[in-house]
Amino acid sequence: MRASVPGLPSPHPIGALLPAVYQEDDFVQRFTAGLDEVLAPVIATLDCLEAYLDPRLAPQDFVAWLAGWTGLPSCGALAPDRRRALTRRAPELLRTRGTVAGLRELLTHVLVDDADVTVEETGGGVTYSSVPGSAPVQAARPVLTVRVSTGDPARIAAVDALVQSFTPVHVAHRVESLTGGGGGRASQDEREGMGDDRRAEGDER
Q: Which of 1, 58, 127, 175 could bridge across to 137 with cysteines, CB 3.0–4.6 Å?
């Protein structure tokens, strides 16, 4: 709800709509003028409601609401123009949610200063056995690797949270820095998977 806007005129003053006997009453006119000041922002909002639903035109504080309505993950502090562009692209981005292409485009929108983004997916697939009744062959778990050109650990952590919210739950992921200065960040699922691999190697030995 928009707050009061000082000096905003009402297109439909209440005093002018009253019978003539009240239009000549100074107290009534002053009283209804106060109501006009309260109702003017409401009328102005309703008159241009479609603009509030357009990320290109909506007030900046309303753009954050629109992004939340679309279901976009939290993207941290973005510049106003980047927030508007990302919110406008939300329907297309969410249609490709869970895909490498969708994640790459989302990260490119968010990491405008670190736009060198590489997304790779390994593992996954289908396994089978030609021997009836044999133990199922475990397929390699899919792992998503995201490399960004930033060495800031805080930025890497933010990207990690964004990737986690945009990828399927069965896909492990890790975020690496292309600069080599910020290290990397593996998801809990990938760390558990690496532990399973090490235990399997020990059993073989």
A: 127
Element (H, E) at 202: helix 188-204
Q: Which residues contact 87 (CB under 8 A, 6 or more apart)?
A: 55, 63, 66, 67, 70, 72
d(CA 149, CA 151): 7
- Quick one: DSSP state of residue 89? T
Phi-psi domain of 53 (left: phi exceeds 0; alpha: psi -120 through 50; beta: other):
alpha
CA 179 from centre of chain:
26
Closest residue by Cα to residue 175 from 97, 130, 165, 79 = 165
